[in-house]
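tool_call: predict_structure(chain=1)
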Amino acid sequence: MTEPVDEVNLPGIKKFGSGKVREIFDLGDRFLIVATDRISAFDYILPTLIPEKGKILSRLSVFWFNETKYIMENHFITDQLDKYPSELKQYKDILVDRSMLVKKANPLDVECVVRGYIAGSGWKDYQKTGLVGGVKLDNLKQGDELPDPMFTPATKAHTGHDENISFEQMKEIVPEHDAEFIKSKSIELYKFAHDYARERNIIIADTKFEFGRLDNRLILIDEIFTPDSSRFWNPELYKPGGSQVSFDKQFVRDYLLSTDWDRNSPPPELPPDIVEKTVARYKEALDRLI
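tool_result:
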């Protein structure tokens, strides 16, 4: 297993910003995105790295961006280092397999979530209100498949927690025409990927997208259908009525919930066996999907 990658700095290349996982560099007319091996949970970046994670996220995103570009334009340009600007060639060892050049877009302040099954914060909301995305549904169990995939947006919190909102509330953040377009495309993307993955022995239970504005059009940005942005379940062990066996970072969340960490202070280190099992789950998702 290779040495995991934490913070990335490229001397001479302007850093635009750092996310929980990705480093973004400003190349003038384009961005360079580098996926590290950091992992986050409960809005904290954990102190432990997950080796190879950034490469798996990048490979899956590149795959899905290429597979879905006929549904929705996205920001991906290339991940081929020989097509990168010459000033990046000296950093090829850090950039290979974990970076991509992308178009610049202005992100919308909303997370675009599609749920095919009831889990996570959607299940918590349902337990309190009986509603999924503002729609009343009766007698759902945790993990149940929904009658149809549902678009359930959330605010994009820069600090603290994202908050689930109704589609009507989303239209107060994004113009109505754009909101309707994003909803339609998000569901179309989810259905395509869900059917593709199901044939390869993975259930994509839910996922989230980010959209940005480029000139006068909306495009898909960030990452797409990765174990960080989606719930990947094992259909062989799928059983509604509780949590599911997954190939995503829910495994890390479940471990943290089993500790005495209060989720309001710096998180603990992950033990080696949890790291190894997380890597194995991410690799299993990659192997099944590609």
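agent: The first strand starts at residue 14 and ends at 18. Proceeding to next step.
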